[in-house]
């Protein structure tokens, strides 16, 4: 398992560095605009008041977009960061195994005395490690720049909100991995299905406040339980996060069970 | 003595496929034996090999390698087996050395000297990324990784594809040495001459069925009665019907008026008849061993 983990990390080191830099740069640039927003909150408040409600619900789960929590949610945490984490996790989940199977190198590994479950565990560990590296980098930059621009929020809660965002992305990555491990979808197919669920879920949930008929289906979607403003304000129900975690573990178990039994394509 | 590889009614039907890819294949390979597995593309060679390696599960039947069940003991089997895929797939971004280091971490080598010797023998390019290597050089790496841990059983799917004749010789020597050291070799190919050269026994597979097995010396004996072909030009009319009536002879007339004569068995009657004619030119065309294989194959089916 360890050689598989290390090899995967080595092969993806530049991509991991790129993701860490990219997400960190996005967070830093947005936080650097906070002093402008804060200083012109009155004028911006009037502009925002004239915008339709649907716009506000699509960019944030906060009603006050100019408060520190609302700013953080609308600029970083509600839409862009979870989508970036989802794209990263889904691309990992859909390639860790499927790319090797498509290229034929999976047989090279399976010809070794390495149980399939241990091989997949090594791949999963690599995916987790990459997600953790990017999350730590994003958290460190968010904390540093929040402190630098005087964003009045708990640094611990900022870290928790970024962690929650990464956890939700990881869940979609787990879905992509499970689909490819079961052999039910190719790498691209599993990525497309997982990404469609993530983006569709976001759209339904962000509009549920405007259309009553969306309220019930929205409750079935993970995005409904992703409330970064509540995390930043300390009112989040962490059972929801445990739910994300449990679903991710279940998807990983499904991937393990499916991969250990099925025929390998060749 | 127990068989090193034993297949008993091994069958495989792929999900959604109308026809089985393997139909009750049974065979046994002795320790130290080199067994050639011959068949045209799509005959079931790779399916059989991939089932033995545990990449796909048999639908019916059983098989064992070194007494271990291919389904239940797949991991234990792989400690003792070297495998070369039909289409060698390697990590494009790794150098040969990085690849061997990675695979050695997953399956420790009994001796680093063995790997060093293989690299020397094949003059393998170890310091360039795989993506920059020719097909032949990638094949060399594939062969090296299969032999490096000195396995007791070698399962090789069309192993010489892309190798130049010199490297093919090195490979044949390597297989002979491994067999001499007691390793059993299951060698799939669609090249009869290669299998004849290397193997002690040959199994023919067609449409998923093992249609025949022959010891190689029987193949060699068969060569004495093999078909031979001549192209003959005559100064004057060609004795077409007289030649046609000779036993074991097939004759056809070319556009130029020359005759193409194929003989199975004794040549003396043909040579005696030609001696009485005004032969301008006689060209012997050695029958291509591949077409010999195809003839045998058609007869067997």
TrEMBL record, chain A:
Lineage of origin: Bacteria, Candidatus Saccharimonadota, Candidatus Saccharimonadia, Candidatus Saccharimonadales, Candidatus Saccharimonadaceae
Record field: transmembrane: 14-37, 76-98, 119-146, 158-179, 191-216, 236-259
Name the UniProt record assigns to this protein: ABC transporter permease
Gene Ontology cellular-component terms listed: plasma membrane
Keywords from the named record: Membrane, Transmembrane, Transmembrane helix
Calcium listed as a keyword: no
A Gene Ontology molecular function term of the record: ABC-type transporter activity
Automatic annotation (TrEMBL), chain B:
Domain ABC transporter residues, every copy: 5-232
GO terms, molecular function: ATP binding; ATP hydrolysis activity
UniProt KW keywords: ATP-binding, Nucleotide-binding, Transport
SMART domains, A to Z: AAA
Stored InterPro entries: AAA+_ATPase (IPR003593), ABC_transporter-like_ATP-bd (IPR003439), ABC_transporter-like_CS (IPR017871), ABC_transporter_ATP-binding (IPR050763), P-loop_NTPase (IPR027417)
Domain of life of the native organism: Bacteria
Pfam families named in the record: ABC_tran
TM helices/strands, residue ranges: none
Assigned protein family: Belongs to the ABC transporter superfamily.
Protein name per UniProt: ABC transporter ATP-binding protein
Naturally occurring in which organism (per UniProt): Candidatus Chaera renei
């Amino acid at each position: 398992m360890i050689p598989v983990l290390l090899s995967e990390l080595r092969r993806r080191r530049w991509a991991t560095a790129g993701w860490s830099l990219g997400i960190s740069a996005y967070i830093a640039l947005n936080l650097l605009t906070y002093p402008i927003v804060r200083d012109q909150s009155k004028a911006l408040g009037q502009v925002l008041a004239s915008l339709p409600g649907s716009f506000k619900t699509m960019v944030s789960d906060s009603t006050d977009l100019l408060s520190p929590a609302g700013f953080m949610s609308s600029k970083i945490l509600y839409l862009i960061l979870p989508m970036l984490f989802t794209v990263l996790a889904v691309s990992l989940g859909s390639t860790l195994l499927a790319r090797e199977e498509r290229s034929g190198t999976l047989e090279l590994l399976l010809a070794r005395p390495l149980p399939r479950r241990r091989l997949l565990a090594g791949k999963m560990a690599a995916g987790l490690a990459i997600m953790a590296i990017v999350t730590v980098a994003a958290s460190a930059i968010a904390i540093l720049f929040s402190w630098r621009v005087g964003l009045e929020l708990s640094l611990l809660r900022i870290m928790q909100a970024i962690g929650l965002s990464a956890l939700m992305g990881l869940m979609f990555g787990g879905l992509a991995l499970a689909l490819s491990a079961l052999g039910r979808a190719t790498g691209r197919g599993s990525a497309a299905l997982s990404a469609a669920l993530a983006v569709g879920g976001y759209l339904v949930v962000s509009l549920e406040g405007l259309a009553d008929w969306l309220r019930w289906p929205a409750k079935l979607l993970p995005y409904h339980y992703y409330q970064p403003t509540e995390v930043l304000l300390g009112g989040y129900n962490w059972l929801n996060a445990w739910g994300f975690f449990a679903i991710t573990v279940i998807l990983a178990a499904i991937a393990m069970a499916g991969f250990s039994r099925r025929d390998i394509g060749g | 003595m127990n068989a090193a590889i034993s297949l008993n009614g091994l069958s495989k039907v792929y999900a959604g496929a109308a026809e089985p890819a393997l139909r009750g294949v049974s065979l046994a390979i002795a320790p130290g034996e080199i067994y050639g597995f011959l068949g045209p593309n799509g005959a079931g060679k790779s399916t059989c090999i991939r089932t033995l390696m545990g990449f796909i599960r048999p639908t019916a039947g059983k098989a064992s390698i070194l007494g271990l069940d291919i389904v239940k003991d797949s991991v234990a089997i792989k400690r003792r087996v070297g495998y070369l895929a039909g289409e060698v797939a390697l990590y494009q971004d790794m150098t040969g050395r990085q690849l061997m280091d990675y695979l050695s971490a997953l399956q420790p080598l009994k001796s680093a000297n063995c790997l060093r010797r293989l690299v020397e023998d094949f003059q393998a390019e170890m310091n360039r990324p795989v993506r920059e290597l020719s097909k032949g050089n990638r094949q060399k790496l594939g062969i090296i990784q299969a032999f490096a841990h000195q396995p007791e059983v070698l399962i090789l799917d069309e192993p010489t594809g892309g190798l130049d004749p010199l490297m093919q010789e090195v490979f044949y020597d390597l297989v002979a040495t491994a067999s001499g050291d007691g390793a059993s070799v299951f060698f799939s190919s669609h090249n009869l001459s290669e299998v004849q050269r290397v193997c002690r026994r040959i199994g023919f597979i067609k449409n998923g069925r093992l249609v025949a097995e022959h010891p190689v010396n029987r193949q060699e004996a068969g060569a004495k009665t093999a078909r031979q072909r001549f192209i003959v030009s005559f100064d004057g009319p060609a004795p077409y019907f007289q030649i046609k009536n000779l036993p074991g002879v097939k004759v056809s007339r070319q556009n130029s008026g020359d005759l193409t004569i194929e003989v199975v068995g004794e040549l003396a009657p043909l040579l005696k008849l030609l001696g009485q004619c005004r032969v301008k030119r006689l060209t012997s065309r050695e029958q291509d061993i591949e077409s010999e294989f195809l003839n045998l194959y058609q007869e067997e089916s």
